Every structure is written in C-alpha cells, then in structure tokens.
Description:
heterodimer; A: mainly alpha; ABC transporter involved in vitamin B12 uptake, BtuC; 0% strand; B: alpha/beta; Rossmann fold; 2 domains; five-stranded parallel β-sheet; four-stranded parallel β-sheet
Amino acid sequence: xxxxxxxxxxxxxxxxxxxxxxxxxxxxxxxxxxxxxxxxxxxxxxxxxxxxxxxxxxxxxxxxxxxxxxxxxxxxxxxxxxxxxxxxxxxxxxxxxxxxxxxxxxxxxxxxxxxxxxxxxxxxxxxxxxxxxxxxxxxxxxxxxxxxxxxxxxxxxxxxxxxxxxxxxxxxxxxxxxxxxxxxxxxxxxxxxxxxxxxxxxxxxxxxxxxxxxxxxxxxxxxxxxxxxxxxxxxxxxxxxxxxxxxxxxxxxxxxxxxxxxxxxxxxxxxxxxxxxxxxxxxxxxxxxxxxxxxxxxxxxxxxxxxxxxxxxxxxxxxxxxxxxxxxx
Amino acid sequence: xxxxxxxxxxxxxxxxxxxxxxxxxxxxxxxxxxxxxxxxxxxxxxxxxxxxxxxxxxxxxxxxxxxxxxxxxxxxxxxxxxxxxxxxxxxxxxxxxxxxxxxxxxxxxxxxxxxxxxxxxxxxxxxxxxxxxxxxxxxxxxxxxxxxxxxxxxxxxxxxxxxxxxxxxxxxxxxxxxxxxxxxxxxxxxxxxxxxxxxxxxxxxxxxxxxxxxxxxxxxxxxxxxxxxxxxxxxxxxxxxxxxxxxxxxxxxxxxxxxxxxxxxxxxxxxxxxxxxxxxxxxxxxxxxxxxxxxxxxxxxxxxx
Lengths: 329, 305
C-alpha cells in the first residue's frame, strides 16, 4: 500500500470509529434521531445527549489517542528505542501527579488553566529526567529502569495525594488516574485540553525531518544540519504539552504509544517522518475503539480505558522484549 | 446514604437488598429486643449507660434518652454534613466505634447499625455487652418502627410513643397530593436511588415520581447521565460537594445536567436530614413539598402569558 493510501485508510477508519463513538451509549437512541439532533439541534433531550455528552467523549477519544500515538512515535524516533512510550516510561503518571496536585490543592479551581499547566509541568519534568538518565544514546535497559523508577514514584505520589484528600471520593479515583477513562467528560474538558494538545501536536509533527536524519546516527544528523539540542527541546515540550493535557482530562492510558507505532512502522518503510502522522491517526483509532469497547462490554460500570489498552498492549510489549533478547544474544 | 463515599463516612447506610429484607430485619431486631425488655419492665431496669456507635442510632438515642442515660455518640454525630443534631451531640463524649474504646465506657447497651462494624459488634457481644442493631431505614414507616425499637431497648417506650405520634401527624400533614412530577436523585459517579429506599418514599410522599424507578432500579445504582437526560426530570436533587476535589463529583456540574436543571427551573440538595430514618426526615419532606408546589407555580406562570 502506498503511503498516501495508508493515511487515507487510517483516516477512513478514524472517521468510522468517531461516528460509531457518537452512536454508542446507554441511552438507546435511533440512528436518524441522533444524527438529526447532532446536526440540526432539534429534539431537546436528544440534543443534550448528543452535543454535551457523546460529542465531547468522541472528540476527547480522538484527540487523546492521536497525541499518545504521536508522542510515542516521536520519542521512539528520538531515542531510537521501540520501548519508549509515554505511559511506560512514566511521562503520563508524572502528568497525572501534576494534575492531582493542582486539583487537591485547589489551584485548579481558582485558575482554570492550572490543571493542564500542572500536568504539563509534571510531564516535562519526567521527560527531562528520562532524557537525562537514559540519554539519547541510552540503551533499552537504562530507559526502562529509569521509566519504572519514575512511574513508581509518580504513581505513589498520586496515591498519597488522593489518600490525604478530605474528599471521600478522591481515594477511590486512584484507579482513574492510573487507568484512564472518558466517562462523563464535557465540552469544558475539550476546551481546556484542546489548545495544548494542538500546539504539542504541531510541534511534534515538525520533528519528522530531524528524526529521519537521526536514524543515520547523531554525527550524520549533525552533519546534515540537524540541531540536536533544538530537536530535543521541541520533543520535550511537544510531548509535555500534548501528553500533559491528555492526562489532565482523561487520566493515564497506557500502551497506545507503544502498540500503534510498532504496528505501523513496517507499513511506512520505517521512516520516522512518515510514521508521525500515521501514528497519530492510528492512536486515535485505537483509543476510539477502546472507548467504544468499554461502553459495549460494561455500559453501566465505567470500565477503565487502560484495562483494554493494556490487554492489547502487554502481549506486544512482551513480544518486543523477546525479540530484543534474541537480537542481543 | 446514597453513594459509595457516603458509605464509608456515614454510619447509616442502606444496602441494595430487596425491599423485604430490611423490613424482616426490623421485625427480627424488634423481637430480640422485646424478649429482653418486656413492656411491663420497670423504668428502673432501663440501661443506665447507653453508647451509640452509628450516626443514625446516635440521633434516635439523643431524642429518646433520659438525662445522663446516653454516655457516648459516634464522632459522625458532630459532622454537620452527616448529622442533623450537631448541637445536641456536642455535649456528649464522642467515640470512634472501636470495641476497645466502647467497652471501656462500661455500657449496659450499645446501639449499632446493622451494616457497620460487624467485627466490633461481634467482639462486644463476646465480651458480654448487649448490642442492639438497627437496619437502615428503607421507608418513611421505618422511622416510627425505629423510634419504637430504640425506645424499647432504652426503656423509654413512653417517650418513643410520644415522638411517633408527633412524627406520624406531621408526616400526614406534609403529604402533597398532586400529579407526580418526574424527579431524579443524582449523586457523585452517577449514583442514584431507586425503588425501596427512603429517598424514593420522600419523593413519592411529596408529589414526585422517581425516574430511577422508571429506569428499573431497585435500591441504589448507577444511572448513566445520558439516560437521566433522556428521562427529562422536572426536578434533580443532588448532594452537597465534600471539601477537596474529586472527579466523581464533577458529574454534578456537567453542562448536560445543568441544562436539565435549568429547564426544570428548580434544584434541591440532599443534606444530613436525608441520611437517617429519624423524625428529621420531616425537614427533607417539607423541603421537597415546598419544591413541588414551586414547580406548579412556575408552570402556571409560564402558561399564563
């Protein structure tokens, strides 16, 4: 399949899943009724359901999935390591820690942008730490060990903050921050996260050429005029912006950034510049599909998204480790 | 109360057992208590030191006790978000419901909730302490039954009868007979209360029908926001937020829910008066009756021009 063909196919898949996401829900609405309500605003309660409940959920599924796939592909390109993934190496959980601190200290209530900004700060800090500890030339082992340490620390921080909260519900939400969910999100959340995600996405998409050059090695890349310092900075802030905002509204959804680039890489001829847009579309498709699945499997239970992505993602992860062991042996 | 958080914090909860079970437990408790404390028993035999370890028995005991008879209530009794009798409770030492602390108070009678602190109750009984357990109130009639039950256990039958008579008279006076308007109870995480709950009876007593019952819910359960919106309730009753932040409570300020509430033109909140089956539910009943009449007035004024 040609590259254009692949993007068109992924685009069609995302469109289809987006439409399906709008049409699936606990209130059994007719097809025509829902579409008419969504587009024309006729039928009071149905309009509310379509525009205020299902549309924000579908939009967030699209956006969160896209940034997770994209940032996974970008980090893997930069570190030249297929295990780099925001969820796995602690970027998402650090963002969650930032978000939880903003919420529980009351800063988020006092100043609207505090929530995404705090999550962004958490994410940026962890990306800096990871790059510092594992380095651009760091092997898989250093990357994963640093990631485990940061994940564990941030996860413990989230649990601690929520357990100390005076709110009796907060402690029960540890699982939301660890597994992620799009249930009962609103347009307020879309508006809050979208600008950050958009900016982050645009930044990450500019990295294509630099990452292509980097596949030839750092010296070759520098010889080709790629400024590695700048590339690194754009990667850090692009990832922090997009993943931070995604986690602030949807919690930590793991494995999307791992599975999607892995599946698509052979289809784009292993070129990072081509993988980036494809991974964004693929991530959106995966998250929309997962969010439809949680609603179909357990409509009244708010099954977490991370449960499904981990069920699909963990075998991939094990397979990757297995292959790396064989390569190293 | 009607949400998982409340279950931890508040002493008096209702399980999701079918309607009959709760009433059976009342009957059982009543017969146990009755056999120990025969009606003819002299006032002098009444337990001199009563300790309550449950929010709801706290309040019933405070209403019924002779001066000095109630030596301790649970710590929740002084929490304004849970207790209707904070002022009265301030003068009484509080306990945290652990067996050790309760036993050292040398009680003649311990009042506990049927679904709380099982291990504590078992331990106290092994230590020879008389424990009377009170199931959660599932109906407005349970309030009278619970007053009588606790009154009998405390040797305060006359006081109980006096309170029951006043409660029943007030309850009858507060009934609203009107075409039932659809209403919904909505709590954090989309939790709601359906058939066979005290909250449902309060709605029905004040001229409302419960959309959760129409959706087929018995006891407590989750009603997805979409289905709540589609039910088009004319009244949405929500809970007050706890301090601190939680994602669970965000659903109560969701734009879709706010649109429903604006359309309804009226919004009520549940508070401590809704939690326990005590005569304080009358304040909740009165508030809802007021809201029901307000709904009629609003529709009249909308129809007029």
